[in-house]
């Protein structure tokens, strides 16, 4: 396509938006509302997932060894654990460290009772590995593997916690898909109505253009531009608003509710919008393109 044709196509696309100001504004407003809700939900979900990930990082599987096992065998088990893809980190806890932690947690204030075991560690066979995972949903697979290792006496897992976190992650995923699908359909419907109105307004002009030899692509292109521009504008406006709001909200909560900083750590603005901006722009432009394309196929017979 020649540069002059591209210029004409873009110009006609903007003219279509201007001619149907009310429908275009309604479409842009609805698209903005959809993208705003998408961005808002994305920000919330991103922070929830970060919190869940933080909680997952504290869930460990504990591996205990057979009585009388040598340190070389323990080290070999550690190497096999380290090689597993599910494992993010692991830590060896000796029997002395286990007893020291037990005294600190359960015998605080009862030092005399603890002193009676000075020369006899009651947890002498409690050396273990604490294993942390990349993905909590892989815990059953890892536990089955660990139970089959030579020298392993017992494997303890936080099954209830792991199931709760996995179910919560799945729930967030299903809700995200459902909301995005609803917003997607609503936006396509409104853009389709806007483009349909534009086709009706230019019906006679399109007929004349075809009589003088205009190609199908030349006739359809302005309506594609119209849909894409509505989608682009409808994405840029809410993204700008969300950026300002998110920045101010996390600063406000950090200053006014400082006690929450120990419980909640917000994902930084740049990290959230590094993904949100391209996702929202692609979504807006994609919906605009698809909405106009569907409408053209249905209503514009050229």
UniProtKB/TrEMBL annotation:
Gene Ontology cellular component annotations, sorted alphabetically: plasma membrane
Subcellular locations according to the entry: Cell membrane
Major site of localization recorded for this protein: membrane
Record key words, sorted: Cell cycle, Cell division, Cell membrane, Membrane, Transmembrane, Transmembrane helix
Segments passing through the bilayer: 21-45, 171-192, 228-253, 273-291
Domain FtsX extracellular positions: 59-155
Keyword Transmembrane assigned: yes
Claim: Heme is one of the keywords in the record: no
Topological relation to the membrane, as annotated: Multi-pass membrane protein
GO biological process: cell division
Database matches in InterPro entries: ABC3_permease_C (IPR003838), FtsX (IPR004513), FtsX_ECD (IPR040690), FtsX_firmicutes-type (IPR058204)
Alphabetized NCBIfam families for the sequence: FtsX_Gpos
Its job: Part of the ABC transporter FtsEX involved in asymmetric cellular division facilitating the initiation of sporulation.
PANTHER family noted in UniProt: CELL DIVISION PROTEIN FTSX
Protein name: Cell division protein FtsX
Lineage summary: Bacteria, Bacillati, Bacillota, Clostridia, Lachnospirales
